[in-house]
């Protein structure tokens, strides 16, 4: 037994009534979190029936559902050893640690909860099963993940087909601020090493939250009285991605201590994490829909003939390939102070801090297409342009230094007071603030060079297969079609230079107070919550002041008077070969892309001097005004947004346990009323004039606007959200569940701008504008669950759960073509037609599905597995033949399956995890969203990934571990409306980790 710990056993004969009191509230996932020592009865038999003994409930430990006395009890599952390791308890109770102990605690919580809950708990302090929160969550039934293409890291989750903002993530029962613009958090920003438990509530607890149609995810962090006495955990590892070829460190330290009289405790931890990833990407920025002239299907088509456009189809807006070199660095820290002056009072003060810095160097090429310039067009049966040529196609080589800093800090105070043996009062307050790119950070510095004009080529573009295993091919590339001179530095000149930064803050204040009455088989809870969320949004760039075109044009070799060519040779630092760029994918690319430093490139152009004070050959005097030599960003007035959201909630729940026909029956009923007031303020202006660029015929600039006017909109709404949970124990091991509830999901704060924003930097044939809708209402869902769970032996179970969700007020992002303020398109002489993206509350939809789960441990062999599958569908699937502006479908729905096989015995552990997710509709909208048929969709292709982890306990305090992620080299690919419209394919490779842990 470790020093300064307490061993607690649970009597197998504990009455059902006492078990019910232990986990009687409607949110038993929280009530029963971080259990006391759970016993392994895998080899114990019920003395009366000879069947496996029924599992005993876990002891409640979550801060916002326990009494003050319970919150001061130790919650340490690591104070005794597994019998399989040669240690037997002093009585008939056996305590299991490690992976199997963790799995059993998860089942205890799942079984005793009133609603549908899945849990993942730490195997020990400082030992969580996976290196990423989302990666752990995907092992659960109904949970899938989204990955960052450039990093391959799991960043978000989808639960029962609902992802992103449909899921609420809490830290210890509190909402967390996020400056990303939505409501969901990026799970790659959460340090996982010292997490205590993850709970996924698929049915709501009205005393916690009802603002998630998908699920509520509660991330629980440790407190000092979870592990009384002195505890220390340290971890250190090195990881390497197979293409990055560099070992980078991760290290963490946790120290916790309580006084001898168990009245005061302190816990502090800090984690440093570094991930380096080199990712190869081939991309099409968008497949806009529009109309072709019949003559474009031939080689000879004059401008006059091209005016009659009668054939519907799609074309690639921009095509290219790039290598992304990403450094992801994160610091997480936590401090928790607990004061327990009497058994009836517990005071907890904690602070959570995280700062993630992502530095990304991109090296790419890109070619731009205009639908009206395409010739020799071959359309497939769906209308996709699978073969065409374009005369005069320019070629751009780009380098970008992208930086994103996301920082969050949350401070909370929780007071728990046991007024009587039956009544517990609780007050909780928290303040959190997040920053995206705080201070003077520049989010992206871009250098764009190349050739065009006289050196433009009659490029050929061909689609050669399905997006899951092929990317498009281009031929006849190079200056004037000379492929041997593809990367000839003597003809390459300067083009556009883009700097841009998104600055956001999100400030969140929240208060909660509730009273809980427990007596015999009845638990009553009543209380209220208040949230105030203030979001500020601002974008600044060289688009706003038109400085991006300062040296556009490519220079003299391309026949242009603007642009600098040749560029100094020392700017070029080598190249990235595009040979076998995406292994396993068909398609052909040019030979290489340049490696150059965009900052050095911008410094070179700045060093040419001030074009406003002297004549500088190559400066774009015809289009750029006010430029003094430096590529300063300017704030885009249309991007400025401030949203304040205030929500008041009152809730009441009643939970009781009785018998029906002699069978134990648990019933939980709750109701929550939420009132929300919204205020959003933006800066409105309208375009007055659009002008062409003398440096590049594909570029346009809005150089005049109306005066800026502040615009403020206020709105409010109120909803009553009921919830019912019923659980009937048909036998000692078979549980039947029925659940019904109403939940909501609020629109993303970034969608609530009250103004229409028309950016100054535009492209010929691709005029765009975007607007929000401050009057958006939440999605509403009526949810129904029917499930059965068979706990047929210790650490093993089978479960099936049917669910149905009727969702109304879906928010759809449509794209419409419209004129704005009568402004004229100088390339046509007609009123400019902008593709305007906006959101509205739209149709209803039904989502239905079934979750299957099976967990099996094979006696004392150490072997076992977890397997689950989810099958979902909807009455509103995507209709690819609908080209109206108001096309709609439910996003995120996909069948999925997970399998984890493991061995855990005698200190050695090995896991193999297989995760599969079918193709799904991610969103409406693509990087270039300029089509005539509304917002084009983005689909994610089927994925299949294999991960391996292992560890070995050298002693009871010291262990080593290893991890191999994506061993089958899964690649992430997306496509547009049809499967051959590739949008992205990311090859982010494998990652290997080796490290050690120490616990005391």
From TrEMBL:
Position of the signal peptide: 1-38
InterPro entries: Beta-barrel_TonB (IPR000531), Beta-barrel_TonB_sf (IPR036942), Plug_dom (IPR012910), Plug_dom_sf (IPR037066), TonB-dep_rcpt-like (IPR039426), TonB_rcpt_bac (IPR010104)
Listed Polar residues bias regions: 81-91
Bilayer disposition of the protein: Multi-pass membrane protein
Statement: the UniProt record of this protein carries the keyword Transport: yes
Domain TonB-dependent receptor-like beta-barrel: 451-967
Subcellular location: Cell outer membrane
Domain named TonB-dependent receptor plug: residues: 110-214
A Pfam family this chain is assigned to: TonB_dep_Rec_b-barrel
Alphabetized UniProt keyword annotations: Cell outer membrane, Membrane, Receptor, Signal, TonB box, Transmembrane, Transmembrane beta strand, Transport
Residue segments, region Disordered: 43-92
Family membership: Belongs to the TonB-dependent receptor family.
Classification via PANTHER family: PLUG DOMAIN-CONTAINING PROTEIN, TONB-DEPENDENT RECEPTOR-LIKE BETA-BARREL DOMAIN-CONTAINING PROTEIN
Protein name: TonB-dependent receptor
């Amino acid at each position: 037994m470790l020093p300064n710990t307490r061993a607690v056993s649970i009597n197998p004969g504990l009455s059902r009534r006492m078990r019910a009191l232990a986990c009687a509230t409607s949110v038993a996932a929280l009530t029963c979190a971080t259990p006391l020592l759970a016993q392994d009865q895998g080899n114990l038999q019920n003395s009366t029936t000879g069947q496996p003994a029924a599992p005993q409930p876990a002891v409640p430990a979550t801060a916002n559902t326990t009494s003050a006395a319970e919150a001061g009890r130790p919650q340490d599952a690591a104070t005794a050893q597994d019998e399989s390791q040669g240690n037997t308890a002093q009585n008939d109770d056996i305590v299991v640690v490690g992976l199997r102990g963790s799995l059993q605690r998860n089942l205890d919580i799942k079984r005793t909860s009133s609603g549908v809950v899945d849990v993942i708990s730490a195997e020990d302090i400082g030992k969580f099963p996976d290196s990423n929160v989302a990666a752990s969550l995907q092992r659960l039934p109904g949970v899938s993940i989204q990955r960052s293409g450039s990093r391959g890291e799991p960043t978000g989750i989808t639960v029962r087909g609902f992802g992103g903002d449909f899921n609420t993530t809490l830290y210890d029962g509190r909402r967390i601020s996020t400056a990303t613009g939505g409501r969901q958090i990026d799970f790659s920003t959460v340090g996982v090493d010292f997490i205590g438990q993850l709970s996924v509530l698929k049915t709501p607890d009205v005393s916690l939250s009802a603002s998630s149609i998908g699920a509520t995810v509660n991330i629980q962090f440790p407190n000092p009285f979870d592990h009384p006495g002195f505890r220390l955990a340290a971890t250190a590892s090195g990881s390497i991605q197979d293409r990055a070829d560099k070992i980078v460190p991760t290290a963490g330290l946790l120290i916790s201590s309580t006084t001898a009289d168990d009245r005061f405790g302190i816990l502090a931890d800090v984690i440093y994490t570094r991930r380096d990833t080199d990712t190869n990407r081939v991309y099409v920025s968008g497949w806009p829909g529009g109309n072709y002239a019949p003559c474009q299907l031939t080689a000879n088509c004059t401008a006059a003939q091209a005016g009659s456009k009668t054939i519907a189809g799609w074309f690639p807006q921009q095509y290219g390939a790039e290598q992304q070199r990403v450094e992801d660095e994160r610091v997480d820290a936590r401090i928790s102070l607990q004061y327990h002056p009497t058994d009836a009072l517990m005071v907890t003060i904690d602070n959570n801090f995280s700062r993630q810095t992502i530095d990304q160097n991109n090296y790419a090429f890109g070619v731009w297409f205009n639908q009206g310039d395409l010739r020799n067009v071959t359309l497939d049966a769906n209308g996709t342009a699978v073969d065409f040529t374009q005369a005069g196609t320019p070629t751009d080589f780009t380098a970008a230094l992208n930086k994103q800093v996301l920082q969050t800090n949350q401070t909370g105070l929780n007071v728990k007071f046991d007024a009587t043996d039956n009544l517990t009062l609780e007050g909780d307050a928290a303040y959190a603030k997040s920053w995206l790119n705080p201070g003077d950070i520049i989010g992206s510095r871009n250098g764009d060079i190349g050739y065009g004009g006289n050196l433009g080529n009659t490029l050929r573009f061909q689609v050669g297969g399905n997006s899951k295993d092929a990317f498009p091919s281009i031929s006849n590339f190079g200056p004037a079609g000379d492929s041997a001179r593809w990367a000839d530095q003597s003809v390459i000149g300067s083009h556009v230079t883009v700097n841009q930064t998104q600055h956001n803050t999100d400030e969140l204040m929240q208060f909660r107070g509730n009273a809980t009455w427990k007596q015999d088989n009845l638990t009553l809870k009543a209380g209220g919550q208040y949230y105030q969320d203030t979001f500020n949004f601002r974008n600044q760039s060289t688009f706003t002041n038109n400085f991006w075109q300062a040296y556009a044009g490519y220079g003299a070799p391309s026949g242009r008077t603007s642009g600098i060519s040749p560029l100094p040779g020392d700017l070029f630092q080598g190249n990235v070969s595009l040979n076998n760029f995406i292994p396993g994918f068909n398609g052909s690319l040019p030979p290489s892309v340049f490696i150059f430093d965009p900052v050095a490139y911008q410094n070179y152009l700045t060093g040419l001097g001030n074009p406003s004070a002297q004549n500088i050959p190559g400066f774009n005097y015809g289009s750029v005004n006010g430029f003094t030599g430096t590529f300063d960003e300017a704030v885009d007035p249309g991007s400025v947004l401030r949203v304040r959201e205030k929500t008041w909630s009152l809730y009441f729940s009643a939970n009781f346990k009785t018998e029906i026909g002699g069978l134990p029956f648990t019933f939980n009923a709750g109701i929550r009323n939420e009132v929300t007031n919204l205020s959003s303020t933006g800066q409105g202006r309208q375009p007055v004039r659009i002008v062409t660029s003398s440096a590049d015929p594909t570029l346009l600039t809005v150089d005049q606007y109306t005066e800026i006017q502040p615009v403020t909109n206020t709105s409010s709404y109120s909803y009553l959200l009921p919830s019912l949970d019923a659980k009937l124990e048909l036998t000692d091991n078979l549980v039947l569940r029925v659940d019904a509830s109403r939940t909501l999901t609020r629109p993303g704060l970034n969608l609530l701008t009250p103004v229409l924003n028309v950016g100054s930097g535009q492209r010929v044939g691709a005029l765009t504008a975007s607007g929000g809708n401050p009057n958006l209402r939440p999605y509403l869902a009526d949810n129904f669950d029917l499930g059965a769970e068979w706990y047929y032996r210790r650490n093993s179970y089978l479960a099936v759960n049917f669910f149905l969700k009727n969702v109304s007020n879906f928010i759809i992002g449509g794209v419409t073509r419209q004129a704005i303020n009568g402004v004229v398109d100088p390339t046509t002489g007609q009123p400019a037609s902008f593709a305007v993206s906006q959101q509205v509350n739209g149709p209803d939809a039904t989502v239905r599905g079934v979750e299957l789960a099976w967990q099996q441990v094979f006696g004392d062999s150490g072997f076992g597995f977890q397997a689950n599958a989810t099958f979902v569908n909807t009455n509103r699937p995507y209709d690819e033949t609908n080209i109206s502006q108001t096309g709609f479908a439910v996003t995120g729905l996909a069948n999925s399956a997970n399998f984890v096989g493991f061995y855990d015995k005698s200190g050695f552990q090995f896991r193999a995890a297989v995760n599969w997710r079918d193709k799904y509709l991610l969103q409406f909208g693509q990087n270039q969203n300029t089509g005539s048929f509304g917002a084009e969709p983005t689909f994610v292709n089927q994925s299949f990934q294999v991960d391996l982890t292992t560890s070995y306990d050298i002693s009871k305090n010291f262990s080593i571990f290893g991890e191999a992620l994506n061993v089958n080299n899964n690649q992430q690919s997306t496509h547009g409306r049809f499967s051959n419209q590739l949008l992205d394919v990311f090859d982010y490779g494998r990652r290997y980790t080796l490290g050690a842990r120490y616990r005391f």
